[in-house]
Amino acid sequence: MLSDTYQHTFIDVVLPLPLPGTYSYRVPAEYVSQLLLGKRVIVQFGKQKIYSAVIWRIHHNSPIAGKVKEILSVLDEYPVVNEKQMQLWEWIASYYMCSLGDVMSAAMPAALKLQSETRILLHPLHDAYTQPLTDDEYLITEALLSHHALTIRDISLITDRTNVFPLLRTMMDKKLLLAEEEIKEKFKPRLVEYVLLEPQYVDDENALGLALNTLEKKASRQAECLLVFMKTWFDSDRATEGILKSQLSGVTGFSDAAYKALLKKNILVSVKKVEGRMEAYEGTVSAPALLNDIQQQALTLIQTQFEEKQVVLLHGVTSSGKTEVYIHLIQEQLNVGRQVLYLLPEIALTTQIITRLRRIFGNRVGVYHSRYTDYERAEVWQSVLSGKEPGSDKEGSGYDIIIGARSALFLPYSNLGLVLVDEEHENTFKQVEKTPRYHARDAAIVMAGIHEAKVLLGSATPSLESYRNADSGKFGKVIMSERYGGMELPEIVIANLKEAARKKQLSEHFAPLMIDEIQKALGNKKQVILFQNRRGFSPRMECETCNWVPQCINCDVTLTYHKFAGNLRCHYCGYSMKMPSHCSACNDTKLTLRGFGTEKIEEDLSTYFPEARVSRLDLDSVRSRNAHAEIISDFEQHNIDILVGTQMVTKGLDFDHVSMVGILNADNMLSFPDFRAHERSYQLMAQVSGRAGRKGARGKVIIQTYNPAHYILQNLVDGDHQNIYDKELDERMRFKYPPFSRLIELTLKHKDYKTVNMAAATLGLSLTAELGNRVIGPETPYIGKIRNHHLSVILIKIDEKSSPSAVKEIVQKQITTMNQLKDFKGVQVVRDVDPV
């Protein structure tokens, strides 16, 4: 019995659930010595659920006497989440108005999370027949004698108990029960099989020859198998680690049956080694290239400004050589033993950057993004955590440089020295599909502050927020205004579609100027990039008689025709239907396709330029894991003449032979109903224009539009980027939009149209009463229904004089009050801080 002076130990844990706060558990005495912040523990939550949770706090204060559950076990030998990560999680949860559980779910790779698959069995050595049992113990034992295993739910029904865990724990202590796969860990290290020669044969060729002669007489297939191994082994200069089993399996003469027989005869030996799933770099490593004068000047200015500023904006025109500057900054950090995070907005970009960095830094470069498997991401996590390369016990052999998309900022860095955010203006740095809706650029700046690290934001077209922060002195600012090697920026020419249509000169979707320039580029053995910001074949199908348009059954959007798949598809929920043969409204068969997407452009190009090799880079063409890398590689190697794509072709890709870029429809971007439409249009067009003429002769950009007088287009042609920034900042200041305010967008969702509108009206009135005219709405958004949920949006502006945290507190309070009303309990409210 414990003495009266014994103090119970409690922990507060974070569960991977969208629930507020942390939850307290009592720690049994046998686990107390194992407790450390950031370790995972197994806990029961609710009546029947088991979860792995992260220890957030250790204390001796009982939350509610007699009502605190005990943890079931401690899972880790060492913490998998460090204290710096915990600080970042807390900031994200607070700033983006979500729970720590939401952050945990987003931050940790799935392979490090556990799944509850509890099955209860009788212990093989149980003595249920002689040991006194309670009534409930007897019921469970009898049931298990009849059934091999029972689930937690089965046992709850048998005993009529809602909480059976204390009973099961007691029975396990009595050696009556055991849990099979109670908690199944998803992540297992990758084991690779090597084949070696038994040591006695390595140096004794006579013994080996004798064994081979014996096999040839009695087991010819085994002899053949051994000869295959010997040849491979000698070809590899008698590799001391052995030969990969997979390397032998495909060779004629090597069979698994013969191989297993040789293992049994102790002639060959099988050794399984833990190896990383990431493909190792086996090329030569070289020093960083020498910088030219402009690059060296930029590097020196960045270093100088880092002495006073935590964040510096590098505003360098496309092809100015920013990446080489990054490489020298990375080398500086490695020289002093610190880690570097290199954030990119698009997975497609990582292919080129990985190749470039590994030629200099070799296997010190790790990659982390969603196209990698759960196991691969878990290995990177463990490598960053332990400082060891996957499969290695050598200290300090882990990844010093991480390249990745936004999720890479969640890795367990312990000694971060520099964060590079390339193409910092890109809206893909913002998580928009699920909670937490964080912006990786802004979160990276906060994380760097926690680590006392520096941040370099790089872009040819900085966001207005970063541009203003640099101009106001909050950030440092360095400008690279010339292209590397003195190359000229491309010539930008406007193609007037209205004039071409009036003169009946349009060829499908191409103005004569576009056709001529493509033909000229191909004739000069150069490459072409065409940008169209719509994927699919045609945005909509329409009946010529009654104007019926096929709609998604789940969303308020028209269906896009995809010719390759032969169906109409919704880009919001994935719903698809076969191509209709007649109108559903009037039964007419006159159905016409309106508009054009990348798939249609790809088909038309094959008609106009039959000799050209055309390919497409969009979400539909890169469904498989390596598809984007293969397309980019083919284009780099000039196996593709014309590359058609969506935004994927605009972002930082570097191709030597592209002389011409075409923007097929500038008007769609410019007329989009959003206060950032003009800024985004300029950024997209400037970025895709920057792919032209990076090597060799000056490039050319053709922009097709029905509105050639638009000020964005005119300033883009003139290269007057400053005027665009000044005009946009003036507009934002007049109407109090970012960067002169902060926004919180609340999206209410419910399957019933009336319910969501009533809830939005109620919430809108209560917020207006507290915040006044800073509340805009509620309004039905541009797309009013997605995945069978009707939407209503409320926008809240927080001016520069107001406290964002105070406003968020009011907003959260009013949401909670609204959700407590009986009629609105089922209404979801999505909180999006700093929406893009």
Residue fraction in strands? 15-25%
Shape: globular
Estimate the mean pLDDT confidence: 86
Q: How many β-strand stretches?
A: 36
Instruction: Quickly give the structural class.
Output: alpha/beta
N- and C-termini, Cα separation:
60 Å
Assembly state: single chain
What does this structure look like?
This protein is α/β, with parallel strands linked by helices. About 35% of the residues lie in helices and about 20% in strands. The protein contains 27 helices and 36 strands. The strands form 9 sheets. A 7-stranded parallel β-sheet has the order 16-17-15-18-19-14-20, with helices on both faces. Strands 21-31-30-22-29-28 form a 6-stranded parallel β-sheet, with helices on both faces. A hairpin with a 6-residue loop joins β25 and β26. The protein is globular and about 100 Å long.
Summary?
By secondary structure, the chain is of the alpha/beta class. It is 35% helix and 22% strand. The chain has a 7-stranded parallel β-sheet with strand order 16-17-15-18-19-14-20, sandwiched between helices. A 6-stranded parallel β-sheet has the order 21-31-30-22-29-28, sandwiched between helices. Strands 2-1-4-3-5 form a 5-stranded antiparallel β-sheet.
